[in-house]
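S.,

Sequence below, as promised.
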Amino acid sequence: MTSRPTRGAAGNLPRTVLTALAPAVWGTTYLVTTEFLPAGHPLFAGLLRALPAGLIALALTRTLPRGAWWGKAAVLGVLNIGLFLPLLFLTAERLPGGVAATLGAAQPLVVAVLAVAVLGRPLSARPLLWGVTGVAGVGLVVIGPAASLDAAGVAAGLAGAVTMGLGVTLTKKWGRPEGVGPLAFTGWQLTAGGLFLVPVTFLAEGAPPAIDGRAALGYLWLGLIGGLLTYALWFQGIARLPVASVAVLGLLSPLVAAGLGALVLDQGLGPVQLLGFALALASIVGGQWPGRPAHTPAVTTAPPVPERSLR
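The prediction came back faster than expected:
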């Protein structure tokens, strides 16, 4: 596998910034969907976001999975893309956008727990603390006073957070095969997720909508930039950074969506929303700093032990 030992927060800064571009770009999805794409076909948008980009990556790299990686790539593609997107859209349909975004912001908490069960890491209070802070911050930014709850929507939102959290954790656990670059690895998952979405999309939405020039630009943005480029950065970041640090970067998505809503759609931000922004940003920054090692000997002559990637 190509995963490398993680370094301190300062040493990881360039990789962290590149990885953060992925959820930041995903935060444009709401604006692009509402302003550019035909209404009533969110799953078709997810399909075009995944499958064409995945096939392009496969054509460029000419690299297919081998052995057990056929199954692993399929599992990761379904978790990270194919299953996550329908749950995301179901949540958005059944709940106000703010409630849906807040449920999605629970992903760092999910990853903190899954890291114990899947990766065998000790449970640490730090990722839990920053995860709770992030959920509170996003909630203040996006939940309005008239927000209502729907049991099916809440279940879908939590299932989406667990699905994506499990996908992130397994991506960290399995790494990437030797000799396989990030573009090929991303192509495997986008293709697997897109193929999973084909029957789901046409059973749920029927025939695809008519696509004009404006919609074509939106689909190109979601597929090439919001799909191929950002997922390559995201999976590369998972391989190089502590998994809890990557998960908390996902909070950037609802923050960017809210910021674009304020700048482009005249959706104002009051003092409560600004406080929420501050809390969420504090969670993102705080989540990048590793905690103290569990045991720090006063004097030692033995070779240093490689630091854990998650505390």
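The chain is about 70% helix and 0% strand.

Coffee later?
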